[in-house]
Write a structure and sequence with these properties.
alpha/beta; 4-stranded mixed beta sheet; single chain
Amino acid sequence: MGQSFSLGRIRGIQIGVNWSVLLIVALLAYGLAAGQFPAEVPHRPEAEYVVAAIVTAVAYMASLLAHELAHSLVARRNGVQVEGITLWLLGGVSRLQGEFPNPGAELRVAGVGPLTSLVLGAIFTLVAWLLHGSGTGGVAVAALAWLGGINILLAVFNVIPAAPLDGGRLLQAVVWAITKDKLKAAMWAARAGQVLGWALIVVGGYLVLALRDYSWLWFVILGWFLTSAATAENQQAVVQSRLRTVAVREIMTANPVTVPASATVTRFLHDLLPWLRHSAFPVVDDDGQTVGLVTVRRVNAVPADERDRTTLRQIASPLAEVARATPDEPVADVLPRLNGGSDGRALVFDGGRLAGIVAPADISRALERISGNRGAFGSAGRWRRP
């Protein structure tokens, strides 16, 4: 669900919108203007229904954004990097990078989203009740009441203990805290998500066929999405479980070729690269200390007329932004770091000495050896929810 256009930033977090949001806003607005509002508040001008429906649909998407912002802000407070938020057809996605430091952090990040929706639902419902009690009626009260109900429903649905819902994250955090096994907890939550997804597909499909009511197709669509997402998470957990038995030293490229920080891009391209077979290189200073990582992609991005005066140090990823590992730790622990680090590589240090480098291809080859399945490498450390 790629980002189609940007709404800017909120508290430094990039907000993107997928084209499918336009579809859901249009469907909601049509349903409210043509059915919900005229049924609850009859004999009003059609324009009033249309305007109220559009405003309500947009307010609903703003509520989803508030839900995701709560996830992202609390995640950032707990030391997890936030790439951004994307709104799409079935809700929103907070794109987080890295691992949760402990079960408590995951519990807080997971719980704050439904809590935000519940608070918003209570506020909308309270305002609608106060306006109705004061004798004020009309479409505005119906719109507020609908927003209150939908936000409360969103909160309740999201605490169902099944991944990738927030409740699945809550279940994962609890199981992690009890078993001290994060991967086992992830697999439990993913399997619960698969069960829920298939249940929605079966129930929705039966009701469509039995009642000839095609509105239940939403159950089928949602079930399909949940099943697909939960299956992907389960596969990811299986991959990490297998990689838990493999040490970094078994897959890394030992004693990697380094390049001098003072070398210009021109010298690198003409004198060094033709003799080297890799695409990423640790950068060292005059004292032999590692100061960063440079890739061929970064080098090629330098304009031709600037290559004579641009050094590798200037274009390299600083060491602080590069994922790091030790030779004896499990590859499963490095995988999220690899995805969250700059340029998708990890430098391996043994007692302060540069011992190796790990690339995604190294992990793919390790998985091929373990399971015989090609192309099993996938991203990790991202928070996604419908």
